[in-house]
Design brief:
By secondary structure, the chain is mainly β. It is built from two helices and 23 strands. The chain starts with a strand and ends with a strand.
């Protein structure tokens, strides 16, 4: 059985310390509770990854301390906001990870009625302006493993939290306060298999389906915890460690499927312009971070130049609908939109030889008005000299995530193409990934 225990989290606003009570899930107790509209204490959501932090781990809680805290609606909202900052970063960025494109190897261009074949195999994680041709079919598969190590410039291996719990006498007189500091270690990994199929409806229009199959792993550990007990006069009475706790889970299934339509615009012999739109469906289980829980719409424009050295560029905008994962106040009917914003890409590919091409791209995604994590600290009277309470608190932020993509395409025979690529995140905004390899194979019929 599980229960909600009220505890106090210390937050610094405008240089002043404020106390907010948190309802946090503890194991081996009884009662009920909910995280906004997501019930982490009963029903199907209880075993989902979204409930790993702070609920299943008992993070931000201390059942060894004397007394209780204060209760209230603001307490539940604060606890939910802390969890939302992590959950929405995972959902928004995992659902918008770069995937291999439907660049169909060699391209035939008719110059004065004479066919001319270009052996540039095209980019890897973005698209180019040409279509695959009427009646043609392109299929592809790629695999990547994403390992996340930071969030909002804070290491996932050591997210600090501080909170307190108060003990009162029979007459309601404060007897003692227990201040607790702890570090949360999150291990978050996504293995992503992506299948893509493209059909040429005409020489100027393609339609594509992109289906991700994902295995998500999430582990949460609390450690390096210390309790400081002070009496009503703020004199230190006792210092003792808080036992560590651990919770982990895995999920496997279909992610958010994406459907794409590309239409070529009036172009030159080698310069190509195209308009495209991606529609992302909420087909993945958002409570297990396999999906976002929101529809997504991404219209964009593409330019590419067809030659041995082929530059290309893309610019668009990502709109998303509301999701149950983005509900910082934890109130029914107050779900907010999955963060989105401008998406852009600029890069080039170069045909090293007849059946080998290297490609490099700068890929960017903007996330506007998204929940994020910040840290604050405060010194408390009665604690040992030099001891400060450092905690992670929810804030609202806007930022861009920029990635460098570099790789190689090889066509050993016919229209069969193999691809290898490395994705490197250039800044430390949002949920940060380690350098990520990709391998892929594709064929055009």
């Amino acid at each position: 059985m599980l229960a909600w225990m009220p505890l106090n989290l210390w937050i610094v606003e405008g240089g002043q310390m404020k106390q907010a009570t948190l309802y946090l899930l503890l194991a081996a107790l009884s009662s009920t509770g909910a995280m906004g509209q997501i019930n982490c204490t009963s029903g199907s959501a209880q075993s989902k990854l979204v409930c790993q932090f702070p609920f299943s781990t008992g993070a931000l809680s201390n059942d060894t301390a004397l007394g209780t805290g204060q209760a209230g609606t603001q307490a539940l909202q604060t606890a939910t906001a802390v969890a939302t900052s992590l959950n929405i970063a995972m959902a928004s960025q995992v659902s918008q990870l770069p995937v291999a494109s439907a660049s169909a190897g060699t391209v035939v261009v008719y110059k004065g009625g004479v066919p001319e074949t270009f052996n540039n195999l095209g980019p890897i994680l973005t698209d180019r302006g040409q279509t695959i041709g009427k009646g043609k079919v392109f299929i592809g598969y790629s695999f990547s493993q994403y390992v996340f190590n930071n969030i909002d410039q804070h290491p996932l291996s050591a997210l600090p939290f501080a909170f307190s719990r108060e003990a009162f006498g029979s007459g309601g007189t404060l007897q003692s306060t227990t201040y607790t500091t702890e570090n949360l270690r999150l291990a978050f990994k996504v293995n992503q298999h992506v299948g893509i199929a493209t059909v040429g409806l005409s020489n100027k229009v393609d339609v594509s389906a992109i289906i991700p199959i994902e295995r998500v792993s999430l582990g949460a550990t609390t450690g390096q915890s210390t309790n400081y007990v002070v009496d009503s006069s703020n004199a230190l009475v006792l210092t003792y460690p808080k036992p560590s706790s651990y919770s982990s889970g895995r999920a496997f299934g279909i992610g958010d499927a994406i459907f794409n339509v590309k239409a070529m615009l009036p172009s030159g012999e080698r310069s190509s312009f195209a308009a495209e739109v991606n529609v992302r469906t909420p087909s993945g289980d958002d409570l297990n971070f396999l999906g976002s829980g929101a529809w997504g719409f991404n219209p964009y424009l593409i330019y590419s130049y067809l030659a041995k050295f082929s530059p290309h560029a893309k610019i668009g905008y990502q709109w998303n609908t509301k999701t149950e994962l983005n509900n910082p106040k934890g109130t029914a009917g107050r779900n907010q939109s999955l963060p989105g914003g401008m998406v852009y890409d600029i890069g080039a590919d170069y045909a090293l030889m007849r059946r080998m091409t290297v490609a490099a791209d700068l890929l960017g995604s903007q996330f506007l008005n998204t929940p994020a994590i910040a840290t604050s600290s405060v010194a408390v009277t009665g604690l040992p000299s030099g001891t400060t309470l450092v905690t992670s608190t929810p804030v609202s932020s806007s930022y861009s995530v920029n990635n460098l993509s570099a790789g190689l395409k090889l066509s050993p025979v016919g229209n069969l193409v193999f691809a290898g690529n490395v994705l490197v995140q250039l800044n430390n905004n949002g949920l940060h990934i380690r350098p990520t390899p990709l391998v892929g194979i594709s064929y055009k019929f």
